[in-house]
Design brief:
about 475 residues; 21 helices; 2 strands; mainly alpha
């Protein structure tokens, strides 16, 4: 199954070869990359649905404990994105996709077993959530691999589609959870796990049969070290904390926030789980779709402009959540319909805007290094190889740091609920961060262009 299937002469910038056959090869690899990343995202965010199957009177876990499960999975997924970025160059995109899909069978089976045995302490659940975090690493390896398959003029579309198709694994998982809760009740989580055991097998075998390795795909520790000395690396990482960190953090937290408020409104845990599941998938679904259009929009008008507008919108959505939550804090009685509508509108707006921002920020990465490569001394082929290596390294690094933003969101919500029984303090933190990100984007990439100076030694360090 893992026989050699390596392309030795890949050049996506060769227009004649691209139109003749290479675009079909790239599309085939993109398709199965999306499938594998999609399922990986679902396993990574499995606990965003599992917590709806865990009433406190049965499992003994508080809302704070459940937020900690989401934070643990997000933390591991974020940390693994750097080594996963390097893995495709070391082992081949096809080979690594197959391996990473099979690995996720372990946490899926583990989740099924744990939820069938309530009464266990928290630590085995945290361990299982951590192993499920391996699914978060799939994003970095998939994006880096597809980045090497496509020419510069199509990277925004390809990376947006690849990432959006992966991100949509979150709402699909939540729809599966909704189907199970609606038909079998909130005590049958094993059906969700069973579905993903099958899908993981399909993804692994499909990647083995239809994907390719690229011999010239090079991302090494030299490139990873080199990007750390470039200011744009840290700016992009911060912006991605605001966009992808919001998407993945709210993907874990949205359903639980809804469930908490439904219970506070007087619903039973079973009804609250059902009603939360009926709404929770909407935000991640729209955010995943928006990511594709964010990349395309950035191709047309520029990633910096799109990202600035995105953070402006996120400030408004965050302000709505602060206003609604503050109003509820000062109102006695159960959560009202108007309050719930305000929460849903604010969160869904954040999902859509963060999705657009995910696409626009990632489009900025290859554009930044393509511009920097023009000032290098060397052949066009060397410049292109340098740009690809640096872009691939930053894609992995930004993905890792950005995912850690999701950890911050879950920990902020956890502490806010533990301290005051409300999410208002956490919403204020998010609002301030979005303001900082918008200001930084405008100053760095809109008001004045990003610096283009790059030393020839940087080219030598990556290519030698």
């Amino acid at each position: 199954m893992l026989r050699s299937r390596t392309i030795t002469d890949w050049d996506p910038e060769d227009i004649v070869a691209w139109e003749a056959r290479n675009k079909y090869i790239a599309r085939r690899n993109l398709l199965w990359s999306v499938v594998a990343e999609h399922v990986g995202f679902s396993v990574w965010t499995m606990w965003s649905v599992m917590v709806l199957f865990m009433p406190e009177d049965v499992y003994g876990f508080s809302a704070g404990d459940k937020f900690l499960l989401g934070a643990t999975a997000t933390l591991v997924g974020g940390c693994l994105r750097v080594p996963y970025t390097l893995a495709t160059a070391k082992f081949g995109g096809r080979n690594w996709t197959v391996f990473s899909a099979f690995v996720l069978l372990v946490p899926t089976v583990g989740t099924m077993w744990l939820l069938a045995h309530p009464g266990l302490p928290l630590w085995p659940y945290l361990l299982c959530a951590a192993v499920g975090g391996f699914g978060g690493g799939n994003f970095a390896s998939s994006m880096t691999n597809i980045n090497a398959f496509y020419p510069q003029r199509l990277k925004g579309w390809a990376l947006g589609l690849n990432a959006g198709g992966g991100n949509i694994g979150v709402p699909v998982l939540q729809l599966v959870g909704l189907l199970v809760i609606a038909t079998a009740g909130n005590r049958s989580p094993y059906w969700v796990c069973a579905v993903y055991l099958v899908l993981l097998a399909v993804a692994a075998f499909g990647a083995a049969l239809f994907m390719d390795n690229l011999e010239l795909h090079q991302i090494d520790t030299t490139a990873m070290r080199s990007i750390l000395s470039i200011r744009d690396t840290w700016v992009i990482a911060l912006l991605y904390i605001g966009t992808f960190g919001s998407f993945i953090g709210f993907s874990f937290a949205f359903g639980q926030v809804l469930q908490i408020n439904f219970v506070a409104g007087g619903q039973s845990p079973a009804d609250a789980a059902l009603h939360a599941a009926q709404i929770a998938f909407i935000g991640p679904l729209l955010g995943s779709i928006a990511r594709v259009y964010g990349g395309k929009l950035a191709d047309r008008v520029g990633g910096g402009r799109v990202t600035t507008v995105v953070f402006g919108g996120m400030i408004l959505a965050g302000a709505l959540l602060v206003a609604v939550s503050t109003y509820h804090d000062h109102t006695s009685g159960p959560v009202g319909t108007a309050t719930m509508i305000g929460f849903v509108v604010g969160f869904v707006a954040l999902f859509v805007l963060s999705g657009i921002g995910n696409g626009s920020v990632y489009k900025m990465i290859p554009s930044i290094f393509a511009a920097r490569s023009r000032s290098l001394i060397g052949s066009e082929a060397d410049k292109e190889q340098w740009s690809r290596a640096m872009s691939g390294a930053l894609i992995g690094f930004a993905g890792a740091v950005g995912a850690l933003g999701g950890v911050g969101i879950n920990l902020a919500l956890r502490q806010s609920y533990l301290s005051s029984g409300s999410a208002t303090a956490a919403f204020w933190i998010f609002l301030v961060f979005y303001g900082l990100a918008m200001t930084l984007t405008w100053f760095r990439y809109v008001r004045t262009p990003a610096p283009r100076r790059t030393t020839p030694s940087m080219l030598d360090s990556v290519l030698r």
